[in-house]
Amino acid sequence: MAEALRVHHARPAELASPARVAALQGECLTLEEALGEVEHWRALAHGALERNPFFGPDFLPAYLRHMAPDTVRIAVARHRGTGALHALAPVGRRRLGLGVAGSATTFWANNFAPLGTPLVTGDAEAALDTLYAHTAHAIPGPVFAVPFMRLDGPVFTALKAVLAARGQALALADHYQRAGLDCTLDADAYMEKNLSGNRRHKLRRSRRTLAREGAITSCWHTREEDVVSAFEAFLALEAAGWKGQGGSAIASHQSRDAFAREAVQALSRHGAIGVHVLSLDERPVAASVILLDGPIGIAWKTAYDESLARHSPGVMSIIDTMRAIMGGDVLREVDSLTEPGHSMIEPLWHERIPVATVLTASGPLAATRLALMQADIRAHHRTRALAKQGLAKARRLLKR
């Protein structure tokens, strides 16, 4: 789905006052410069209006070191007096979609870290206005993009007001809803409410049939040393499956492997990640990796032993993870990060999170530029969907 519209000027009372904006200044930092004030960075991440662990000081440094071009910078809005950070996002120039419409200035979110909502605290409109103005000046481009931005929170509301005040055109591309999980509920009560009796019966039967193969153990790990060991089990399971065969597993690429291990080590050091491992006779057969950021969880990765696919060990791992994280007083929700129609998650998690790539441009050609970028992104997703369908068909044929 795509949507384009002209943003009208907001009423003066709705705009951030010049004094509020003047109290802040924008900068584009190298990773080393940002790490030089990591406590300011961590304070912003913990106090952000919307949490985003992908832009936090544990995950993002590992990603930038191993996975991003050297040209990516960390844009910030800081208070001129105290130096405190009020907004932050990694930024750079890149081609979106198939690249036919040219490049855009973007917040650096992608399929490895598919949440592009910037970290913002305090006066959101003033902070975002400063962040946007400095980034657009430092890394100019005809289109500015925020991929994978949540549309149901205060940051998008504030961004719309900022763009309206600046007379910018705004469009949404790749607009969809992905599955989420309400963690305030008890897991068994949640499944009783949201899954049919037949579905619950099939899940219990799958567990019984797997138990005939050996002794099942289920462990949710959050201690640093346990997380690192459990993540190794995930890496091995992923590499042994179709992703390993196709060369897209994390362990298949040196840079991905180095990034993932470094990020997991840093996250585990601060209690910001959990890994669930389902084992059969002490042999891992499924693993689920959840990033933990205050009240928000991010279901980052999952893998299972495909030789046991008939027993649905991946689904069992997800259900056991739900039992470990739901119904407490810490997590409020988990974002699945999945695309629509995900066969494992969507039948289990019934909340929906609206996400889109937010595009903006100015000037007489703004509407044309945005329409071209929308079409380019749509074409890319159609091509990717066809490739996925072909790959799935090939895997089915190979199994015959």
Task: Please summarize what this structure is.
By secondary structure, this protein is α+β, with helices and mostly antiparallel strands.
Can you tell me the residue ranges where pLDDT is under 50 for at least 5 consecutive residues?
A: 1-15
Helix content: 40-55%
Mean pLDDT: 92
Radius of gyration: 22 Å
Shape, please? globular
User: Hey, roughly how much beta strand do the residues contain?
Assistant: 25-35%
The SS-based structural class is alpha+beta
Number of strands: 14
Order of helices and strands: EHEHHHEEEEHEHEHHEHHHEEEHEEH
Whole-Å distance between the termini? 36 Å
Biggest β-sheet description: 14 strands, mixed
Alpha plus pi helix count: 13
